[in-house]
Amino acid sequence: MIDSLVARTDLEALPMIKRGKVRDLYDAGNAYLIVSTDRLSAFDVVFNEPIPYKGVVLNMIAEYWFNQTKDFVPNHYLSTNIMEDLPQLYEHKRELHLRSMLVKKAQVLPFEFIVRGYLMGSAYKEYKKTGKIAGKDYGHGLVLGSKFGEPLFTPSTKAEVGHDVNVTYEYMSNELGTELSEKLRDLSLELFQFASREAMKKGLILVDTKFEFGTTEDGLILIDEVFTPDSSRYVLKSDYDVGFIDRSLDKQFVRDFVSSEGWNKEPPPPALPEDIVQKTSERYMYLMELLTGKDLQELMGNE
């Protein structure tokens, strides 16, 4: 069995490295243990209401995409067989099952590497205000949901506290160096194009996504999460075709609700009504089923 709600973990057997907005990170010796909780973060603020099964969805989708993309770039994924790898955590089996993974240790690069295939989110807000996206002028004529001729690479800073800030490629290149920046840009675009094709086969449009990369003694690797509904926007192709681009299968549903309530996007967050929590959970689980072919209820029934 698994716990439907895990808002935080406290594993006495392992030293905690960090409690992030969503993930709890532990030192497991030669590796890290990442536990994806059901906490929800929007506009870089953690809400008080956890989303049932959200961490399970994040963990399983990340595992799926790490396996799908490992031929493009090495990644930090090692295992999800936590009870076999770390038997000292057996008493925590229910809370860790399906929502945790062992990963390689890496030095995190201080940027988020964002690729956009369609005009939504913060890019749309910037474009409406200035006509620019990530500092570049895109003129007039684009609307919410416009598809770009070629995906855009728009990096941002990676803030431990407060909000990330969109920056130009030139700014990133000055910070990281030309050679590494070109490699990161090209890898990000290649990964996005691959995932977009795979998602489309399953009736999904990958609107945009963000990557994180790190370095090890063996070189550059993909880390954190990849193509999850926390790091990406997905829209059903059938919805997009008839203009319903606001019905995305991710936390945009929550973003739209709290924005409509007039929240200023600073702590404390507003309370989420039960129906918003439930509908968000349903969106996450439906996306997992479409992408991975696995049904969460069936997985629980087979245990």
Treating each run of at least 4 consecutive H or I residues as one helix, how many helices? 10
Class computed from helices, strands and strand pairing: alpha+beta
Unreliable segments of 5+ consecutive residues? none
Percent helix: 25-40%
Radius of gyration, in angstroms, nearest whole number: 19 Å
Task: Tell me which CATH architecture of the largest domain applies here.
Answer: 2-Layer Sandwich
Distance between the first and last residues' Cα: 6 Å
Biggest sheet record: 7 strands, antiparallel
Word description of this protein:
The chain has 303 residues and is an alpha+beta fold. It folds into two domains: 105 residues, Phosphorylase Kinase, domain 1 (2-Layer Sandwich), CATH 3.30.200.20; 153 residues, D-amino Acid Aminotransferase, Chain A, domain 1 (2-Layer Sandwich). It is globular, with a radius of gyration of 19 Å. 39% of the residues are buried.
Notable characteristics:
alpha+beta; Phosphorylase Kinase, domain 1; seven-stranded antiparallel sheet; five-stranded antiparallel sheet; 16 strands; 24% strand
Question: Can you describe this structure in just a few lines?
Answer:
The protein is α+β, with helices and mostly antiparallel strands and 303 residues long. The chain has helices at residues 54-69, 82-85, 93-96, 121-130, 169-176, 178-201, 237-241, 252-260, 274-292, 296-301; strands at 16-19, 23-27, 31-36, 41-42, 45-46, 77-79, 100-104, 107-108, 111-118, 132-133, 136-137, 147-153, 156-157, 204-216, 219-223, 232-236.
